[in-house]
Amino acid sequence: MSDPSKAIQILTSAKSAGRLHHAILLYGTSLVALENVAKSASEILLGKYPGRHPDLFELRPEGKARHIRVGAESDKVGGDWPPNTMRRMIRDLRQTSNMGGEKVAIIYEADRMNNVAANAFLKTLEEPPSGTTIFILSTRPNDLLDTIRSRCIAMRVDTPPERIDDEEWKLWLEDFKKWQQAIMRGGHTRSSAGNAAMRAYGLLSRFDAILSRLTEGSANLDEISKEELDDEVVEAINSGERRAIRKRMLGDIEEICVECAPSCGAIQASKLSRSVQELEKSASLMELNMADVPALEQFMLNSLRIWMRQ
Predict the structure, then answer these.
(1) What's residue 243's pLDDT?
(2) Is the per-residue pLDDT at 175 higher than 90?
(3) Which of 2, 153, 158, 297 could join 21 via S-S bond, C-beta 3.0 to 4.6 A?
């Protein structure tokens, strides 16, 4: 296990010793930390800041399904594979270096590859182009094909829990805590359940507004980058940023649920466990591309049902 700075040191030492593997799986809980390590290592390999470097090739999930596309023949433009597709990246890596040096590829959220894209990628892992290093980034490495993981050197990047320093979000958490405490105390009447449900929908509306505001401008893209990148790629970057922020927000919500736990009582402990499981289910649904608010709504209403039952 390595923190980001230690991971960069390890990769730098491996490069200096000529032992850097051609495929490196960087995994951990923070997409931001994984990206920072990959970009810092790319800067060392390429000899300059990798942003817009002609020998840096990046691949991200995109579209509503947030999948990494393989690239279809029907999508070709001028006989070339479309940008931000697996086949385009493979083609770029097999060409001669633009600057006469090394080539680097970064695959973001690699667990978003479907089987077609993954199988197309496998041949490149089995027969890597000369002078090429591929960084594979994932917060869910077990979702990658075993055949991909087995061909990589895996490095876990540990990071401390990331906090969202936002006053409106802190206020939201305080109000959610009051809501959670209220439903845990009971008061099993139709009126109390109705009031709790109305408060839940108020929290959901505010959650959506806060997440959207925090996501605006969160991607590390300057205006030049936005002009040079395809619109779908920019959207993919923004979607990845939203997913990372949302994950931190859900972590904060889970902490509040646990903080509200009563100090004793087997029945209450069981209800708390079931409520947290519902939150984890909703988080999984979001990862499977269910919209944020409906997924969180499902958690809150199911949590309400759990605590309102005698």
Answers:
(1) 80
(2) yes
(3) 153
Q: In the chain, what is the greatest distance between 2 CA atoms, to the nearest angstrom?
A: 74
Radius of gyration of the chain (CA): 22
Backbone φ, ψ for residue 157 (5° rounding): -110, 110
- How many Å apart are CA 43 and CA 106, to the nearest integer? 12
What residue ranges in 17-167 does DSSP mark as E strands?
23-27, 56-59, 103-107, 132-138, 153-156
**Domain annotation covers residue 161:** no
Residue labelled with tokens 């939150």: 279
Tokens of 182: 């209220």
C-alpha distances out from residue 271 to 38, 186, 224, 225, 285, Å: 42, 12, 52, 49, 21
Please check whether residues 85 and 174 belong to one and the same domain. no
Range of the domain at 74: 4-156
Average pLDDT in the 36-47 region?
90
Strand-pair partners of 136: 25, 107
Looking at 98-107, 182-191, 283-292, which range is the least confident one? 182-191
Confidence of residue 233 (pLDDT cuts 50, 70, 90): low
